[in-house]
Write a structure and sequence with these properties.
Elements (H helix, E strand, L loop, with lengths): L1 E3 L16 H10 L6 H11 L4 E4 L6 H16 L10 E4 L3 H18 L5 E4 L6 H14 L3 E4 L1 H9 L32 E5 L1 H4 L5 H9 L6 E6 L18 E8 L7 E2 L5 E7 L5 H12 L3 E5 L3 H15 L9 H13 L9 E7 L5 H13 L6 E7 L14 E4 L7 H7 L9 E7 L6 H8 L5 E2 L4 E2 L5 E2 L12 H21 L2 H21 L5 H14 L3 H18 L15 H7 L35 H26 L5 H15 L4 H37 L2 H9 L1 H25 L11 H10 L1 H6 L3 H29 L7 H4 L1
Parallel strand pairs: 1-8, 2-7, 2-8, 3-5, 3-6, 4-5, 6-7, 10-15, 10-16, 11-13, 11-14, 12-13, 14-15
Antiparallel strand pairs: 8-9, 17-18
Helix pairs in contact: 1-4, 2-3, 3-4, 6-8, 10-18, 15-16, 22-24, 22-27, 23-25, 23-27
The structure holds adenosine-5'-triphosphate.
Length: about 800
């Protein structure tokens, strides 16, 4: 069933079958006059006992598309549920989304006056006692409709404990009253909804979903909802849908009248090709020009959110941050920053953070406080977050979504952008892409019906004003360091090429060429001296706060790790990432010792002048005192060890630990390279096993030769089963030998032997066999033959056993 925008459809009263009276009046109280297209298409089908798969753009009103049918179905069925039985379940991938859906459900129940009891089951309570309390509350109050996240719903419906163990039904656990028995029964369940179904059907939730589905009756309605449903089609079978209605709401592009897109018509997505070390300057310039707006900024890791949250809070709202040296420094810092950033007319700035590693209470508080900020009222509000806030969240009045990093999972892209331009409102989204390979992301998204338009790079003049024109003095970067590096590298390569006969070195050369192509792209950008100066100013802040300094390093390392996990790995290639510019963008004081930096042009990174990392203080005085104490002790111990070494009293143990340290230091292999090396080792191992097998086969073939002994043949002719086994083994041996010979280029001498069938056929037809079968002498012989046959059978069995019990724990050396 396809429906096409207008963004609002017919009035609610036009629905067939008509909604119940209480429902119509509740919707009227919400102030929604007309249905959205997805509501118009989904509600009739879902409330008339059809399973539905619904795909509609973000912010198009899918929540009401399932909440209204759930309440209508429950009313119509007049289910008689006992205290512990539930009639409907809604599963969401995140706690925030489950809570949001629960709030809308509560509102609907309040307005309709329907007597159903809803219950929210989300994770987040750290202690088992809290879990037990939650469960006992559920048991006491009972629930008709459960809204929750997969893990906790599994606890409730299947009696699982938080530590993952399943207990015998009825058993009281040590955690105080929490029973292994399910706290609610889904035996009479009428309807289940998977919100953000494509995410839920990802492998991460598989175990919990399978357990939940196994607790449901087969006769039920199932609804799957998402803005990116097509991505999950392969997995739908797991949900047991029956003859579902597929609702797909398409959006027509405003600009190109007929082409369809999978994002709201009111959403404009732009991309900015920008070197990674200039993203901070770009964001500040954007805020400065755009006015007091509400922004969501997405990062790829929790560590990056933590770091930039602390940094931006210190820069933009020092009143909220702890600033070393108190008010005076705060004032100085503010003054210096003013050169690079001026908040839009008389607005204050607030910075918030939200990610999955935060404690639940803080997550909830942030979500609520950011949601409560009205847009455009003299406040620039920034929410820095990870993908935990990408799906489903209906945060009011978000004006602009900025993706500092493109998402690791391309599906998240549309969901992230969809936090703005909801319910027909206008919204802007911007994604930063590094010059070079990452630009392919634009075409990649266009294929997924998510069009983007280019955004202008923003410049800043000496007076601090922001323009789209580069200042007259902006020059193309002349990078001398890269050419030096290049020459050195080329020399090295030539040497290697000579040593290795060309193969490996040629490959490396190719890779480096690609890297330098990306670097060339970076060099095409005119230098942005003000952005560089801003980063230097930021480094000046970092060096005063150990907490920020440590978090910066962590954020950089975690970013590099996450980069290699991009699902679109042919676009986001770690090998082609301009990692030095990334490090600059994180305002690092020095490069961490990190294997990924091997072979990179590290000379392009200038460490912070006169840096003594030990001297960077923690702002918390107690923690700083304890750190200094530890540092002193470590220094004293090191001095004592050095003195002992100098006086020749070096213990063997010290030597050992030095060796270990050296070994560790020498291990500078990048973990991505290490992965490749691992693959190569695995390949080598497989080859070795194959070779060993082939050698075993040669031996087997030698054994087979014994079969040609006339007496053995005789026995074989009498025992067709054994003969068949022998033939099979023999044939396999011959194949292996042939393969080995063709691999090594040697002639397959053994393979030229007569096949066993021929030998046996010959033996059968020979006179000797005919006479032997009746002679007593031969009968005696046959006992001997039988004994040999048995010996061969045993030998073969032993050989095969050895061949197939491969021990994966061996080391390379042993195998060599
Ligand atoms: N018929 C309607 N008229 C006006 N506003 C509506 C209507 N239906 C829903 N809304 C509003 O639209 C907003 C977005 O709705 P909702 O959160 O259900 O979108 P969604 O399609 O689930 O988005 P996402 O894919 O991001 O989860 C909400 O603020 C909701 O109150």
């Amino acid at each position: 069933m396809d429906s096409v925008v207008p963004s609002f459809g017919r009035p609610w009263s036009a629905l067939q079958p008509a909604l119940s009276e209480p429902m119509l009046s509740a919707i009227c109280s919400l102030g929604f006059e007309n249905m959205t297209p997805v509501q118009e298409a989904t509600i009739p089908a879902f409330s008339q006992n059809r399973d539905v798969i619904v795909e509609a753009a973000t912010g198009s009103g899918k929540t009401l598309s399932f909440l209204i049918p759930i309440l209508e179905l429950l009313q119509r069925k007049k289910l008689r549920l006992t205290h512990t039985q539930v009639g409907a379940i809604i599963i969401s991938p995140t706690r925030e989304l489950a809570r949001q859906t629960f709030t809308v459900l509560l509102e609907l129940l309040k307005l309709t006056g329907l007597p159903y009891i809803p219950h929210l089951v989300v994770g987040g309570s750290s202690s088992a006692t809290n879990t037990a309390d939650e469960m006992s509350v559920l048991k006491e109050t009972g629930a008709d409709i459960l809204v929750g996240t997969p893990g906790r719903l599994e606890d409730v419906l299947c009696g699982r404990l938080r530590n993952g163990k399943k207990t015998k039904a009825g058993m009281i656990t040590a955690s105080g009253g929490l029973r292994g028995k399910p706290s609610a029964s889904a035996a009479k369940l009428e309807v289940i909804v998977l919100d953000e179904a494509d995410r839920l059907l990802d492998l991460g939730f598989e175990a919990s979903l399978t357990a939940i589905f196994s607790a449901l009756p087969k006769q039920r309605r199932t609804g799957l909802f998402s803005a990116t449903m097509t991505e999950a089609l392969g997995q739908l079978v797991r949900t047991g849908l029956r003859n579902p209605v597929r609702v797909q709401v398409q959006v027509h592009d405003r600009n190109t009248a007929c082409s369809e897109r999978r994002i709201p018509a009111s959403l404009s997505i732009r991309y900015m090709v920008c070197p990674p070390d200039r993203k901070l300057a770009q964001i500040l310039r954007l805020i400065q020009t755009a006015g007091p707006l509400k922004y969501i900024v997405y990062f790829s890791t929790c560590a990056a959110v933590d770091y930039f949250y602390r940094l931006l809070r210190r820069m933009l709202c020092p009143a909220q941050a702890i600033v070393p040296g108190g008010k005076r420094t705060m004032k100085e810092e503010k003054e210096r920053l003013r050169e690079y950033f001026t908040a839009p007319t008389s607005s204050s700035v607030s910075v918030h953070s939200l990610h999955g590693q935060m404690v639940q209470s803080k997550r909830q508080a942030t979500y609520e406080s950011f949601s409560a900020i009205p847009s455009g009222e003299n406040e620039v509000a920034l929410l820095l977050c990870t993908d935990v806030a990408s799906r489903g969240l209906d945060i009011p009045d978000v004006d602009c979504v900025i993706q500092w990093d493109p998402p690791t999972d391309p599906k998240s892209f549309a969901h992230r952008c969809g936090r703005t331009a909801r319910a027909g409102k206008n919204g802007q989204a911007l994604v930063f892409l590094s010059p070079g390979a990452e630009e392919t992301f634009i075409d990649f998204m266009a294929l997924r019906k998510i069009p983007m338009t280019p955004a202008d790079y923003l410049w800043q003049s000496a007076d601090g004003s922001v323009t789209e024109e580069p200042p007259a003095d902006a020059k193309i970067i002349e990078d001398s360091s890269s050419s030096d590096d290049g020459e050195e590298e080329e020399e090295e390569e030539e040497e290697e090429e000579q040593e290795n006969g060309g193969g490996e070195a040629a490959k490396k050369k190719k890779k480096k060429k690609k890297r330098s192509r990306n670097h060339d792209q970076l060099c095409k950008f005119p230098a942005d001296t003000r952005s560089d100066a801003l980063l230097e100013l930021v480094r000046g802040l970092v060096v005063t706060d150990r907490d920020i300094y440590e978090r910066g390093k962590l954020a950089f390392v975690s970013f590099v790790q996450s980069y290699s996990k991009h699902e679109a790995s042919y676009i986001f290639r770690l090998k082609e990432l301009p990692i030095i510019e990334v490090a600059k963008g994180f305002a690092l004081l020095h490069l961490p010792s990190m294997p990924e930096l091997r072979g990179r042009p590290v000379s392009r990174f200038i460490p912070y002048a006169n840096l003594d990392t030990d001297a960077i203080p923690l702002l918390d005085s107690k923690r700083e005192a304890s750190r200094l104490e530890k540092l002193e002790k470590a220094k004293a111990a090191a001095a004592a060890a050095a003195a002992a070494r100098a006086s020749g009293l070096v213990a063997d143990a010290d030597n050992d630990s030095d060796k270990k340290k050296k070994k560790k230091k020498n291990n500078t292999e990048a973990w991505t390279d290490a992965k490749e090396a691992k693959d190569r080792t695995r390949e080598r191992k497989l080859k070795r096993i194959k070779r060993r097998d082939a050698v075993a086969s040669v031996e087997e073939a030698r054994l087979m030769q014994e079969i040609e002994d006339p007496k053995v043949l005789e026995a074989l002719a009498k025992d067709p089963l054994l003969a068949k086994q022998m033939i099979n083994r023999r044939d396999k041996s011959l194949r292996d030998i042939k393969e080995m010979s063709s691999n090594s280029g040697r002639p397959a001498a053994a393979a030229e032997k007569r096949s066993l069938d021929e030998i046996i056929a010959d033996a059968r037809s020979s006179k000797r066999y005919a006479s032997a079968s009746s002679s007593s002498e031969d009968e005696e012989d046959s006992w001997e033959v039988m004994a040999r046959k048995e010996a061969i059978r045993k030998k073969l069995a032993a050989k095969n056993k050895k061949r197939f019990t491969f021990n994966p724990g061996f080391s390379d050396d042993e195998e060599e």
